[in-house]
Amino acid sequence: MLEIKNLSVRVDMKNILKDINLDFEKWKTYFLLWRNGSWKSSLALTIMWHPKYKVISGSITADWKDILSRKSDEISKAWIFLSFQNIPEIPWIRLFEFLRTIYNEYRRSIDAEFKNASIFLFKKKIIPYLNELDIPEEFLERDLNVGFSGWEKRKIELLQIKLLEPKYIILDEIDSGLDIDAFKTVALELKKLKNPDNTMIFITHNFKLLEILDVDFAYVLSDWEVIDSWWIELIRKIEKHWFCAYCNLDESCNKELKCE
Ligand SMILES: Nc1ncnc2c1ncn2[C@@H]1O[C@H](COP(=O)(O)OP(=O)(O)OP(=O)(O)O)[C@@H](O)[C@H]1O
Ligand SMILES: [Mg+2]
C-alpha cells in the first residue's frame, strides 16, 4: 500500500498541498480527477522526492516503509515509477545505456547478488518489448528522448514500465497529446500490464480512459482537500456535472443529457 498521511508541502516559500490523505492499495487502479493547477503533478513529484518540493509535515509510506527520507533513485528502487507529464529530454545519455542501467539497478535492489546484464543479454531482453510497442531498434542508439515526438516519448515510458515491472505506477496525463490510435494503444498496453502485484494511479482529465480500464477508485480534490472518494459508478455523475457546466452556457444544450 502507498499511503499519504496529512501531507503538507511547500514550494518556493509557497504552501501548496495541505493535509492531504490518500491511500493506494495493491492490485487497484485509481484516478485522480482534479482540476488544472490543483497540484496533481506537484504531488507526484513530491512522492518522487523532487528537491524543490519541501514536505512540511505528514508522511508517505510504501509497503509500510517511510519513503520521505529517501532520494529519487531509492524511491524508484522501492518500486515506485512516475511517468512524467512533461517528459524531459536528456542529451548525452544513450537510450540503450539508460535502460540497461535502470534495469541492472532495479534487479540488484531485489537481489544483491544480481550480476549486470551484458550488452548482448540486455539487447535480447529489450527487443521483444521494442517490437510490442513498435519502437524502431535504431532508437536505442539515440539520446534519451532527444527529438522524440510526444507519442515516441510516451512509448519509452511504457517500455520502462514493461522492463521494470514497478509496483506503484503513477501516470501523469499519459494520455495527453495522443491521437485516437495512440490513446487506444496506451490504454490497452496498461490494461495488459495490470497484475495482482501492482497499483496504477492515473492523473488525468480524460474520462475515456474509464471505458477501457477497470477503475476501482477516483479521488476528487477541491480547495486543497480531498472532498470525497467516489466508487466507479458515481464517476459518471461527476462527468455529467462537468459537462453540464458547459450546457448552461449554450442555448442549444442537448437536454437529453438530463443535467440536474
Ligand atoms: N517549482 C514551482 N515553483 C513555483 N510554482 C510551482 C512550482 N511547481 C508548481 N508550481 C505551481 O503550482 C501550481 C500547480 O501546478 P501542478 O503542475 O502541480 O498542477 P496540475 O494539477 O498538475 O495541473 P494540470 O492539470 O494543468 O497538469 C501551478 O500554479 C504551478 O505554476
Ligand atoms: Mg499536471
As laid out across the biggest beta sheet, the strand order is 7-10-11-4-12-13
CATH class: Alpha Beta
Helix-residue proportion: 25-40%
Say which molecules are bound, naming each kind only once.
adenosine-5'-triphosphate, magnesium ion
List unreliable stretches of 5+ residues.
none
Count up the domains. Answer: 1
N- to C-terminal distance: 37 Å
> Class by helix and strand content?
alpha/beta
- Annotated CATH architecture: 3-Layer(aba) Sandwich
Number of strands: 13
What order do the helices and strands follow? EEEEHEEHEEHHEHEHEHEEH
Largest sheet: 6 strands, mixed
Instruction: State the CATH topology.
Output: Rossmann fold
Task: Give the overall shape, derived from the CA principal axes.
Answer: globular
How large a portion of the residues is in β-strands, by DSSP E?
Answer: 25-35%
The pLDDT mean sits at: 86
CATH superfamily: P-loop containing nucleotide triphosphate hydrolases
Radius of gyration: 20 Å
Q: How many DSSP H or I helices?
A: 8
What is the structure about, briefly put?
The protein has 260 residues and is of the alpha/beta class. The protein has one domain: 3-Layer(aba) Sandwich (Rossmann fold).
Tell me about this structure.
By secondary structure, the protein is an alpha/beta fold. The protein has one domain: 3-Layer(aba) Sandwich (Rossmann fold), CATH 3.40.50.300. The chain has 8 helices and 13 strands. It has a 6-stranded mixed β-sheet, with helices on both faces. Strands 1, 2, 3, 5 and 6 form a 5-stranded antiparallel β-sheet that branches. Strands 8-9 form a two-stranded antiparallel ribbon. Helix 4 crosses helix 5 and helix 5 runs parallel beside helix 6. It is globular, with a radius of gyration of 20 Å. The two termini are 37 Å apart. The model has no long low-confidence stretch (mean pLDDT 86). Bound molecules: adenosine-5'-triphosphate (ATP) and magnesium ion. The site of magnesium ion has 4 residues, from helix 1.
